[in-house]
Amino acid sequence: ADLEKALGRISSGLYILTAKKGEIAGAMVASWVSQASFKPLGFTVSVAKDRAIESLLHVGDTLVLNILSEDSHLPLMKHFLKRFAPGSDRFAGVKTYDAENGAPILADALAYLECEVSTRMEMSDHWLVYCVAKAGKVSNPDGLTAVHHRKVGNYY
User: Fold this and answer.
1) Chain-centre distance for alpha carbon 41
2) pLDDT means per 10 residues in the chain (156 residues)?
3) What's the distance, CA 16 to chain centroid?
């Protein structure tokens, strides 16, 4: 119990990962994101193996990392944490516009990064996906990233 409590104290930001391949679009709330390189600018994101979006995150695929704002993240979090029926539009009712790479950008995000998957590493129950940032923008230079604090490290 002490180990799980100690691991849970690792804080992380709150993000919505979006991807689109052909007519299939997906999204997920992500909190296990970390910058991983300077040249090229890149980050890693951990994606559970059973997530539907996982099939859109193979080497060469593109995505957008939408960075949520501390003062306005709850509506987006609540929306994307809902269960969606297979084939339903996960973006219905959410303001979006298309990134250059075709993935949805959330209009209410603090910032976004357009990315390409460069590498995937298999972990026990997740994929660690390394992405290279190709473009990005901050909508509010004074805004702060929403942060997630867990009590334990053995579940979200």
Assistant:
1) 16
2) 91 95 94 96 96 95 98 96 86 96 97 98 97 97 92 79
3) 4
